[in-house]
Each structure stands twice: as structure tokens, then as C-alpha cells.
Amino acid sequence: MDITATTRFVRLPATRARDIARAIQGQPAGEALRVTALNARKGAALIGKTLKSAIANAENNAGLSADALVVKTATVDQGPSLKRHWPRSRGMASPILRRTSHITIVLTDGK
Q1: Are 30 and 66 in contact (CB under 8 A)?
Q2: Contact present, 4 and 15 (Cβ < 8 Å)
Q3: Vertex 100, ends 95 and 60: CA angle to 5°?
Q4: Number of domains observed in the structure of the chain
Q5: Cα 13 to the chain's mean position, in Å?
Q6: What is the CATH number for 90?
Q7: Is residue 47 a contact partner of residue 101, using CB atoms and an 8 Å limit?
Q8: Most buried residue, 42, 46, 77, 108, by CB count within 10 Å?
Q9: Domain interval for residue 33
Q10: CB of 75 within 8 A of CB of 22?
Q11: What is the predicted pLDDT for the residue at 26?
């Protein structure tokens, strides 16, 4: 059975969080939590938060044990960009894109 948790519109570029998401794929849920807790990056904290939500969904909604769960997939997709401008010389402006992302974690019990 697959259990999913999604965090949307996170104020973090997807490229900064994808390496952590790749690192936890295929690991048991407890080990993946340790990996995210020991990493000092902002993306690790947000992925850890989503992982805890997925574990809570599995325990409360499906009645599964947290010890039997494995991270099937962890993806970080690009969300909408907030468009801002930075003033430049001679009255011009340079665009700034404040990127967002969507974090999706799928856990499975192997069945």
C-alpha cells in the first residue's frame, strides 16, 4: 500500500532540495528521518517535515507500523515563481524570480 504526503508552495528552489530527496529514496523511513535530521540545509528540514507527515498518514489513516515503511519515491517539483524587480541604472529594472517548489513523498510497506 502506498501512502503519500505533499507539501506545496515551499519557498525553496527545487534544485536545492532534489539531492536530499534522491538520497532518501529506497531507505527505510527511520533511516531517512535520520538523514534529514542530520543535514543542516533548509531543504532537509522541509523534506523531513513532509516525511514525518507521510509516516503519520500511514499510522493514522492506514494503520501501518512506522518500522515497516520504506521511502518509495521522493520528488521535488518546481512550483510557481514569484516575480519581483530590482532597480538598475538609468531607470531600468532587472527581473528576480523567487522560485517555489512542491515536495511529494510516497511511502510503501512492500505489499
Answers
A1: yes
A2: no
A3: 170
A4: 1
A5: 11
A6: 3.90.470.10
A7: no
A8: 46
A9: 2-108
A10: no
A11: 95
Q: Give, for all 111 residues of the chain, the pLDDT tens digit.
A: 899 999 999 999 999 999 999 999 999 999 999 999 999 999 999 999 999 999 999 999 999 999 999 999 999 999 999 999 999 999 999 999 999 999 999 999 987
Which residues touch 19 (CB under 8 Å, ≥6 apart)? none
* pLDDT over 90 percentage in the chain: 96
CA distance 8 to 80: 10
75 within 8 A of 61, measured Cβ to Cβ: no
Identify the pLDDT of residue 101. 98
Where do we find the cell 532587472? Answer: 94
pLDDT at 9: 98
Place of cell 512542491: 102
Give the pLDDT confidence score for residue 110 in this predicted structure.
Answer: 81
Closest CA to 73 of 51, 43, 57, 44: 51
Which amino acid is present at 42? K
Beta bridge partners of 106: 4, 73
